[in-house]
Amino acid sequence: MIVGAIVLALVVKLFLLQAFYIPSLSMYPTLHVGDRVLVNKLSYHLHDVNRGDVIVFERPASETSSTIPDLIKRVVALSGESVVIKDGAVFVDGTRLDENYLPDGTVTSTANAPNKCTEQDPCVIPKGQVWVMGDNRGDSKDSRYFGPIDKSSIVGRAFIKVWPLGRFGLL
């Protein structure tokens, strides 16, 4: 019975659900340092990635500055779309993105980022990739720094905060 329970737990962790610890402020205020989220690893085998999804993905190879193997960010643009960042806001295919999950007054900048995403040189998302950004735009290394990510690097969709209990809730 104990062996069966261990095998079941391993199957769930490997293929269905996995808990992740939030180590930084890059998704604040949606996620705080120390929060734990559950990630649905099966989600994108059943449907495509959607704009607004909070995803966990493997750290891009170009990001070697940390020992953290996985990152968590929000999907902002999908394959084939173009991103422009101007006047402190994100535009996808020419339309200002409605980011109601961000606090009022949030400014999105590319001042220190290599990917400027200007009107003259928009960031076009290649097939099979997505553009991700942290909700804490002033303190997030995201696609503005490492570019779009491959869908194949996505571990799954974070869908619920489970710890601490006072912050329990859907994402």
What layout of secondary structure does this protein have?
Layout: H1 2-16, E1 17-21, E2 36-40, H2 43-46, E3 54-58, E4 70-77, E5 82-86, E6 89-92, E7 95-96, E8 123-124, E9 129-133, H3 143-146, E10 149-150, E11 154-163, E12 169-170
Antiparallel strand pairs: 1-2, 2-11, 3-4, 3-11, 4-9, 5-6, 5-8, 6-7, 9-10, 11-12
Q: What overall form do the CA principal axes indicate?
A: globular
How many DSSP H or I helices?
3
Unreliably modeled segments:
none
Which sheet architecture does the biggest sheet show? 8 strands, antiparallel
How much of the sequence lies in strands comes to 25-35%
- Secondary-structure element series: HEEHEEEEEEEHEEE
How many beta-strand runs? 12
The named CATH superfamily:
Umud Fragment, subunit A
The CATH topology label is Umud Fragment, subunit A
Q: Write the CATH architecture name.
A: Ribbon
Mean pLDDT: 90
The value of Rg in angstroms is: 17 Å
How far apart lie the N and C ends?
A: 35 Å
Q: Helical residue percent? A: 10-25%
Concise account of the structure shown:
The chain is an alpha+beta fold and 171 residues long. It has 3 helices and 12 strands, in the order H-E-E-H-E-E-E-E-E-E-E-H-E-E-E.
Write up this protein:
- The structure is a single chain.
- By secondary structure, this protein is α+β, with helices and mostly antiparallel strands.
- The chain has a single domain (2-170), classed as Umud Fragment, subunit A, CATH 2.10.109.10.
- The protein contains three helices and twelve strands, in the order H-E-E-H-E-E-E-E-E-E-E-H-E-E-E.
- It has helices at 2-16, 43-46, 143-146, and strands spanning 17-21, 36-40, 54-58, 70-77, 82-86, 89-92, 95-96, 123-124, 129-133, 149-150, 154-163, 169-170.
- Strands 1, 2, 3, 4, 9, 10, 11 and 12 form an eight-stranded antiparallel beta sheet that branches.
- The protein is globular, with a radius of gyration of 17 Å.
- The mean pLDDT is 90.
